[in-house]
Amino acid sequence: MIVDDKEKVRTDMWKIAPHVLKLEASIIREILKISSKPGVINFAGGLPAPELFPIKDLTAATNRAIENYGEKVFQYSLSMGVVELRELIAERASRRGTKSGLDNILITTGAQQAIELVARAFIDPGDYILTENPTYLGALQAFNYYRAKYTSVEMDHEGMIIDQVEDHIKKFKPKLIYTVSNFQNPTGITMSEQRRRDLVVLAKQYDLPIIDDNPYGDIRFSGKRVPTLKSIGGDEVIALRTFSKIISPGLRIGWMNGPVDILKHFEKVKQCTDLHSSTFNQYVIYEYLKAGHLEPHIDLISKDYGAKRDVMIKAMEEHFPEGITWTHPEGGLFLWVELPKNMSAKELLPKAIDLKVAYVYGQPFFPSGEGENTLRLNYCNATHDNIREGIKRLGTLFKENM
Questions:
Q1: Between 174 and which of 115, 128, 341, 369 could a Cys-Cys bridge form, CB atoms 3.0 to 4.6 Å apart?
Q2: What is the domain class of 5-53+296-400 according to CATH?
Q3: In 3D, which of 46, 19, 51 has the Cα closest to residue 35?
Q4: Structural fold of domain 55-290
């Protein structure tokens, strides 16, 4: 980024807080600026497939929201969120194994705000957070603002290796455990049921909250559904959810499901940020849910994304050279690629852009900065033909740079 002299002088004069000046822009957002150019096959962002947005049903839900609630949809609303929507969310959670009531639900402006509220409520500068390694970049950004430190646990095909967790807790005394337990961002890995139960036992033993960031859990297209951490751990777990991946990210409506006594504090913290999430958008989603559209739509996108994952893996098997490995997610939006140790996914990205294909290199997902030979691919935002062609181009690039 080029900073002119006037901007530099102003920054010096206006005394922006040092920890803000040290913040880095999201590498995903920066790559999206490049990959949005015409002709680029984009495997980079966490973008759902726009052709599957339920525009017709959302239009009807918008009209019903205005007809049924009139001026109420344009007014301020409760910081906890619109009561009608919270009731529906709690009922759905209870049906799916997580006993929940109205006061267990706090509406947020996307799950990203929920992560920020967690950081704001829990973290003092220098506090440790226990995470998976790698972990969600957006969470690291939110935690970094509050000057958190990290102790990171390695993963295998069953998720976080729980045998390592207790030693990390004893050594670093983290404030909380942060996990993306289902179809993890960035790896696509799902934590096994036994490891969830073991993690809950440790959390109870050491009186640590588990923050389960679960935006992808509904999007399963193969394998067996695993009980959520929240359904296993109850009040030991704060679950973060969102409609961004299952309806539309532009509506920016997510929620937290947590203990009533803790959410009272989060309500006050949220009041410091935005007073409340969009009243209008909450009522639109409420009408959409009430009409029974959500579950059929989840079935639709799960089928579509599963087919695209299959196309991508088949193309990788055909075009990627020996020595490159990848995960086989059973749901969600992403898979994770490991190149040979002597290769740098970051250094190869400009060459990939020249070939008009984009990905996110993996290093920023690691709290301690390793993973130079890794990258994340999103399979749900491209057509089948573009997936085949994009993977073919990447295969050529990797072969030339082995």
A1: 128
A2: alpha beta
A3: 46
A4: Aspartate Aminotransferase; domain 2 (3.40.640)
